[in-house]
Write a structure and sequence with these properties.
229 residues, 0% strand
């Protein structure tokens, strides 16, 4: 498919190393199944790269449904990678990326504003160190998927635009649940091959936890550990 070839090109360019070497196409596809992604994220990234969600121009020649082609907020043809995730002015997209950027700033001191290719390739992009790379992978994938869910609730579910507070609370709940899951997965006796090393969990979430300086050394055994934004 032409759209798939285009999106793979976006992803490969985004995942190029410091010398400009592009990863093979197979690495982009395998990265959509990264162990850090849940089933919903894996499916979302696969559909995103294939441009397989029914939206935009897909509705153009459907009698009685052609109005669905355009974003009701912005008046442009809906496109996942070129509009919904990166440019749409409906409430949700900017707010979600601002929250992700706030967390990323705590970790690295840098802003986070991923391009379409970086979203598609987030499973294979390498950042400064292991912890930063993993946090980037989680923030980008979960935030992009939340934006998609908010769009569906607004467009398909006819629920209107959520409030700023609702968006913030939903994003915080997703990230806090992820922290709790990571902590639980450090119990190797219980989770076996699915378990995570405490060191990788610590490297992932250090600098972004609420009141981190007050947490015990073995904070992964504590309940209610939250992201600090």
């Amino acid at each position: 498919r032409r759209a798939t070839v285009r999106n793979i090109t976006y992803a490969k360019n985004a995942a190029a190393d410091s010398e400009g070497n592009l990863p093979p196409q197979s690495k982009i596809w395998s990265a959509t199944r990264h162990k850090d992604f849940g089933r919903n994220i894996r499916y979302f990234l696969w559909m995103l790269i294939h441009d397989a969600y029914y939206m935009g121009f897909h509705w153009k020649d459907m009698p009685g449904h052609d109005y669905k082609e355009k974003c009701q907020k912005c008046g442009v043809t809906e496109s996942m990678e070129l509009h919904i995730l990166t440019k749409c002015e409906a409430r949700g997209r900017k707010q979600v990326w601002d929250l992700a950027s706030e967390a990323w700033q705590l970790k690295t001191g840098q802003d986070l504003s991923p391009t379409p290719g970086e979203i598609m390739a987030c499973g294979t992009i390498t950042k400064g160190n292991t912890g930063e790379t993993r946090l980037y992978r989680i923030l980008v994938s979960e935030s992009a998927f939340l934006i998609w869910c908010l769009r569906n609730a607004r467009v398909i579910g006819s629920k209107g635009e959520p409030s700023e507070r609702e968006i913030r609370n939903r994003w915080l709940r997703i990230v806090n649940n992820r922290i709790a899951l990571d902590c639980a997965l450090t119990e190797s006796a219980k989770y076996g091959h699915r378990s995570l090393k405490k060191s990788i969990v610590c490297k992932t979430w250090s600098k972004v936890l609420l009141d981190e300086d007050r947490l015990p050394d073995d904070w992964m055994r504590e309940t209610g550990v939250l992201v600090g934004i």
